[in-house]
Every structure is written in structure tokens, then in C-alpha cells.
Amino acid sequence: MYTSRITGVGSYVPETIVTNDDLSKLMDTNDAWIQERTGIKERRHIQKGDGNSTSSMGVKAAEIAIKRANLTKDAIDLIIFATLSPDMYFPGGGVRVQDMMGMSTIPALDVRNQCSGFVYGLSVADQFIKTGMYTNVLIIGSENHSGGLDMTTRGRSVSVIFGDGAGAVVLSRNEKEDGSGILSTHLHSEGAHAKELCLEGPNTGAWVPELMESNPQENIPYFPYMNGQFVFKHAVSRFSEVILEGLQANALQASDIDMLIPHQANLRISQFVQKKFQLSDDQVYNNIQRYGNTTAASIPIALAEAWEEGKIKEGDLVVLAAFGSGFTWGSAMIKW
Ligand code: ACO
Fold first, then answer.
1. Reduced to 3 states, what is the DSSP secondary structure of residue 83?
2. Which residue among 21, 157, 229, 242 has the greatest number of ligand 1 atoms within 8 angstroms of its CB, and so is best to mutate?
3. To the nearest whole number, what is the mean pLDDT of the chain?
């Protein structure tokens, strides 16, 4: 059986910075509330006409990752695209990327696992490489949240949290025989809580035209809903469990972690996990302060930035962990 390793990382965020003060001009919120509850200072938003979309941002991140892997697009055998905010209801973003990048008729697979989408995608890619079916898999997480948020006071508890951006990695067959690469991945879900963090419409049980006829405008469920405190409580325990599961599967201790990259859900969640595993600030990477929560894109963006800043070195134990809507959660243990 083969093993896999990450050979290239890349990220892209739209140019427009939206500060907490900018949001307070649109809704009843303020910088102190947002920073205290989430750690977020600013996020990036696509602007109408700036040429960005979920797929095109994914392409920009992917091009960087492929270059850093010393490959060309022709070497990619499979695209895995994770998002909760696709350009179109269908088809998904994977085929859009394949077309925009001018790739051959390679398969494109979309992953609908929200904040855990990247870790799920990485795990799927790892399985394909282990069996020998594929050699290089492009995994993208990309989100255009700003296009679908309720930017009025009604939506403030959700809208202030999310930002736009994309991250990508190339996962390749590992040519090294030094124990490096993906050590293990661990995935979970609990659909009983699907409605605690969701966007219900449009859906095939209640199409928008039907809803528009039978509901006053403000009840149409095409904005995301989040039961914040419920999500927070589950997030801190599931993050901890799935990191521990990964450590135990590899007979490792928390002190062996060189870099933990948690999904950037909320700085308070990351800090809780950091404290639980007694990790120093140098062992955990956070950039939610600058980008907000970019859902499926948050881990690959953070991974790319940590790598660019020289915070991930050969031989390091890098742990990725995610939790989000579904609920779904997962971790990946990587020897860099
Ligand atoms: N600005 C100002 N006031 C606000 C805002 C806002 N943006 N949003 C809500 N409020 C008000 C509420 O209306 C409420 O007012 P009230 O007391 O008069 O009713 C008050 O602030 C407190 O609201 P809560 O919802 O109880 O605030 P809480 O302390 O729970 O913080 C938050 C909300 C930040 C969403 C928190 O629950 C949280 O972090 N949850 C975790 C969920 C999370 O991180 N999700 C990220 C996406 S999911 C994922 O990626 C895992």
C-alpha cells in the first residue's frame, strides 16, 4: 500500500477587507462584541464585479498549490472540491474548476461537509492514493459566504462570523520512505443536530417559489441559522475527542504536536482546545482574526499561511481538526 503526503499548499482571499466597524454601519453590532465573542477583527468579502466566485477563488488557490508541488495541472488525477456555498445549486464547484483550469476530463468530486469539508476531502484523497488508483489529488476548500448572508440586524449573530476565501493542497503519492505523510484521518457525523446549524432553503421539500407564496418575506429560510451556544458546546468537546482519537491511533501525546491547525470556527473554541491539550501559542495556528470563519476554506488557508511563515518544517507533527454543520467533525494526523 502507498502513503500520501501534501506536496503543495496555496490560498487566495478577496482584496476587500470588511472590518467590524464596517459591519456596524449595516447592522446593530460593534467591534467589542464581535472581538470578545469570536476574536474576529476583520474578514474578506467578494464585491460584485470583482470577478471572484467560489470556483474562481478555488482556482487561484489551486494554481499556487500545484506550482509549489512542482507539478502542472496535467499531473492532477482527481479534483475534490469542498464548499457550502457553490456557484450554482448544481452542478458543484469541482467541474467548474476543471473547466476554468482547462484540465482534461479527470473526475471532479464535490464534498458537502461544511466546516469539516476539507478534512473529509483530504481523507477521501488519501484513500485513493493509498490504493494506487491516483497519484496526485487536488483538494480545494472555497467559500463565498458574503453572497448569502443576512447583512441586517436580524442576521447579525451569524453574519459577523463568516468570511470569503479559498485554500488548496495537492496530495501526492509519497515517494519518501521516512514515515512522513498522512498518518491517519478520523471522521464522524451526528445528523441528529442537522438543524442546529443549517441553511434550509432552497430545498426539494420546500422550493423557494412555494415558500415565497406562503410566507412573509422575513420567514423564508434562505439565510443560515445557527444555535450558537449549542454549536459552541458540541464543538469544544468534538474537537477535543477527535484530536485525542488521532493521537491515540498513532501512539502519540499532545506534547508531540508541533502545529495544530484547528478549523477557524471561533477563536474561543481554538483557545479552549489549546488549553485542554496544554499547547503553547507556537503550537496552534489561528488566523480567524483576519479572515473570520471561512468554513471549508479555513484549514487550507491556515495551513498555507503557516507553511509560508516557516511555522511548519519537515518532520513536524501537524494536526488538522474540524467541526461543523451536520454535525460533522474530523481530524488528520500528518508527519510533514
Ligand atoms: N452584535 C451585537 N450583539 C449581538 C450580535 C452581534 N453581532 N449577535 C447577537 N447579539 C446579541 C444577541 O441578540 C443577544 O442579545 P440579548 O441578550 O439582548 O438577547 C446577545 O448578543 C447574546 O447573544 P448570544 O447568541 O447568547 O451570544 P453568545 O455569547 O452565545 O455568542 C456566538 C454568540 C458568538 C455565535 C457564540 O454562540 C458562538 O461562538 N457559538 C459557536 C458557534 C460558532 O463558532 N460557529 C461558527 C460557525 S460553526 C463552525 O464553524 C463550527
1. coil
2. 157
3. 95
